[in-house]
Amino acid sequence: MTSNTYSISGGDFQRAGAAASRLKEQLKRIGVEQETVRRAVIAAYEAEMNVVIHARKGNMRVMLDAGQIDVEVTDAGPGIPDIDQAMQEGFSTAPLEAIELGFGAGMGLPNIKKNSDVFDIESTVGKGTRVSFRLCLAPQNASVDTANSVRVSAELCRECLHCLRSCPTQALRVRNGKPEVLEHLCIDCGACIRVCGTGALNMVGEAEVPRPTDETVLIVPSAFLVQFGARGDPHDVLAGLAGLGFLDVRLTEGWEDALREAVMEYASKGTPSRPVISPVCPAVVNLIEMRFPSLMDNLAPFLSPVEAMCEEFAGHRVVLLAACPSQSTAIKSNSLAADVRIVLATSLRYALLPLVTRADNGTAKWRDKHCVAAACRDEAILEVSGIDHVMAVLEKAEDGALGDIELMELFACSQGCFGSPFYSEDPFVARHRRLDELGLPDTTARAVRRKAPCSARAGLRLDDDMSKAIEKLSRIDEIAGSLPGRDCGMCGAPTCSAFAEDVVLGRATESACVHLNGSEDETT
Amino acid sequence: MRLAYLADKIGAQVLTNRDKAARIEIERAYAGDRMSNLLSEGSETTLLVTNLSNAMLPRVAELVDAAGLCLLNGLSPERETVKAAEERGIVLIISPVGMFETCGRLYQCLDRGRSATR
């Protein structure tokens, strides 16, 4: 770790910004990525100006460590009587002299917070103020230290092979009577869980709703509210959830809206790569990191709504109804401060069923009053749902064929989270029933920036050594050429070329192919 | 659009770093009189337009790699400001008209509305 301290003299507008300039110089020399440099410099400059404007003198201490920059700005100034007020945009106590120069617009502290990953401020009136912030440098690589969230119960498998063909990244094999997930290829989209009729494939999560405590927050996807049939009034579902005894029940909807707004603002800035892709679906982010790394720059640098919510409840206990394995993995792989337990949708649904399904009184009254057509999305956004369509659209984007599109929201499941493999209602029906609002706007909802940029996954790479990878590639082609090309799945791999790859990478032997082994006569 | 060409089209005079003005490409402009906003909005391809003219401006522009600064109303800035821009490699241009009209001219030159995508 290296540490540098720069002194800042209060009232000296001539030299103001010198510390931020030095920081910029340093960060560039150690090769910090441009956008991170920019954010660090903006935050540092604002902190430095606060000292120049308000205090007699101060110091900026910069600590560089593997993976992060920590900046601490302390001053011997008047202190801040009300920090909450000071954090509001537009609030300022700057003197006229500063305002005439264009400073003191009340944007300083909010700007520091916005441009850093961790932000802290403490102040004592009459003594001084200490502002500290951190930016993370190292890319986080979810695929390395965290497994995926698909759970295999081998004893339930009856080898129907449906899952093999459903997997968009060919990450499944069914060998020796049991499904096997190649974790480095799995994007946690849940497509295999959807087609599995036996329960052999499921998601990691708790099958019973954890006992509520008065310090636990329950997070529920809005789409869950419409999973109780034609007469299951979402208001009753919400009331039922509230009655479970958790400290608070929060819906994802407000956070989805907050993300959409933040991404739209990001896209309007003019600098990002087009089309901008919203990170709303973690499975799509995984897919891009693995299969379309050239589109990583197109991803808006925010956390998905569920991740943002768990981030918000740092220090709390959270019970999260995860709609799919990708949400679960995203929560597990991000080192979030909150203590999160994942509960399966089915278990929560059973807990609520007796409360929601009321006596049959013929019509569903709630629908007349509140239901709004599903088509309320912004027209400027291209929405694509269903993993096959998402793959096709990403191919197009990679070829540069979507230059006319500004912003895309891509969902692995059909109709977005309404199509979760764990919901019983048809996704189209569920989305049609959605309520535009339940009269409970979540005012705390906000978009949260990613702490670290996305990083490409090595999943598809055949070998770390490129020349060996090329060798393997030609052997795969050779073997694939000798296979019948029927993609029958009997060997346990989804396609003949996937099988050829398995053979070359040592995951299978050629004898597993029934066609190569048996006589060709059998093919009639 | 090259900054030198853009300046010519809006009738602005280039005060500093003429060579650089001929090289750098401008995609958008941001106009405002608050340092915080200029800091947040500046970028390599952004021209910052402002009524401010103090010597802190070039430093703010430099911190966020902003390409150029456009001052307004044909008013020459203090010597300090010109010197700071010169030293920090910031292209300083002066528009003969006020913010409203300058932005109008820029908007037309940068072809907003027609090329929404890059």
Entry summary:
The complex is a heterodimer of chains A (524) and B (118). Chain A is of the alpha/beta class and 524 residues long. Helix content of chain A is 35%, strand content 17%.
Could you characterize what this model shows?
The complex is a heterodimer of chains A (524) and B (118). Among the domains of chain A are: 2-136, Heat Shock Protein 90 (2-Layer Sandwich), CATH 3.30.565.10; 461-524, Electron transport complex subunit B, putative Fe-S cluster (3-methyladenine DNA Glycosylase II, Chain A, domain 3). Helices cover 35% and strands 17% of the residues of chain A. Chain A has 20 helices and 16 strands. Chain A has a 5-stranded antiparallel sheet, with helices on one face. The longest helix of chain A is centred in the first third of the chain and has 21 residues, at 34-54. Chain A starts with a strand and ends in a 7-residue tail after the last helix. Chain B contains 6 helices and 5 strands; from the N terminus they run αβαβαβαβαβα. Chain B is globular, with a radius of gyration of 13 Å. Chain B has 118 residues and is of the alpha/beta class. At the A-B interface, helix 1 and helix 2 of A face helix 3 and helix 4 of B.
Main attributes?
heterodimer, A: 524 residues, alpha/beta, Heat Shock Protein 90, 3-methyladenine DNA Glycosylase II, Chain A, domain 3, B: 118 residues, Udp-n-acetylmuramoylalanyl-d-glutamate--2,6- Diaminopimelate Ligase, Chain: A, domain 1, five-stranded mixed β-sheet, 6 helices, 5 strands, 42% helix
Spatial strand sequence of the major β-sheet of chain B: 1-5-4-3-2
* The CATH H-level homologous superfamily of one domain in chain A: Histidine kinase-like ATPase, C-terminal domain
Strand order of the largest sheet of chain A: 1-2-3-5-4
* Computed CA radius of gyration of chain B, to the nearest angstrom: 13 Å
Number of helices of chain A: 20
| Number of beta-strand segments of chain A | 16
Looking at the structure, the CATH topology of chain B is Udp-n-acetylmuramoylalanyl-d-glutamate--2,6- Diaminopimelate Ligase, Chain: A, domain 1
Q: Class of one domain in chain A, according to the CATH hierarchy? A: Alpha Beta
Report low-confidence residues of chain A grouped into runs of 5 or more.
139-146, 359-376, 519-524
Distance between the termini of chain A: 70 Å
